[in-house]
Amino acid sequence: MKRRDVINGLLGGASLCAMPRFASAAETTVRMALLPIDTDACLYYAKDLDYFQDAGIDADIQVIQAGSAVVSAIVGGSIDIGFTNPISLAAAHLRGVPIVAIAPGGVYAAHNATAAIVVPKNSKIKDARDFSGKTMACSGLKTIGQWAPAAWIDKNGGDSRQVQFVEMPFPDMPLALAQGRVDSAFPAEPFITQARDVSRVFVDAYAAIAPRFSIGIWVTTVQWADAHRDLVAKFAQVIARTATWANAHRDQSATILTKYIKLDPIVAKNMSRVLYASRLLPSEMQPIIDLAAHYGTLPTPAVSAEQLVYKA
Hints:
- The chain is an alpha/beta fold.
- It is 39% helix and 18% strand.
- The chain has helices at residues 3-11, 14-17, 42-48, 51-54, 67-76, 86-94, 144-155, 173-178, 191-194, 222-227, 229-248, 250-260, 265-270, 282-294; strands spanning 28-34, 57-63, 81-84, 99-104, 106-109, 117-120, 135-138, 164-167, 184-185, 199-203, 212-214, 217-221, 275-276.
- Helix 3 packs across helix 11.
């Protein structure tokens, strides 16, 4: 019996059967890449629940540590679809790189912080001004990983130009804090919870950007999308189906997450969980693009997010 059938029996099947089903088809291998964080874990859920199989897709899932590296892998042809952020997507677009968004990922919503500035438990940092002269680990320079905490610091009386941002993979941040190699960090879940023994949450920096916005999106090249329109449509429907399920089944999705990213079940149970979008909305991508334009990563006026979405 398939895992999906077992879960349908336990949950009554209503939530899993509510989304469109696809006719049986020979599976086509699609190479996909994600970051090892909750924000883009829909691939794991879809694979474990056989949603990709239902769509005739054999999901070859790879892990990459930075959104900018995902774009490079797509352009280089080593993967077909990957998870990145609107800033990296817009930057690629302005360089003439034919990358487009095809499906939504995690979104930030007020009062549901899944990324935060954290500091060591004994840190003397008390307000935004105290970050001057300090180091902060972030997942990527000149991306949301840097500009979100910069925006909070600047909006609350500090000067982000006086902060030394250091690019660092999420999994390395807890140890870097424990060893005193950085004064603060801006991790996403589950690494906020994993670092709780050595750090404390200082602030939800995303709140300085907008009440709701896209944290990441699924992208591919225009050429691949044009050559695989059916797979693009099926992938987007699988992501929508998975988002609906994951938002409604936190405990079950946490169990799947622990399997794929080797997460302690206690951490998975206690950490803040990301909200997944079921529709790709340019209006939810725009706040991050505007933020990057404000800090000079992207030119002003900011590129319109409408231009970054694939038009089949």
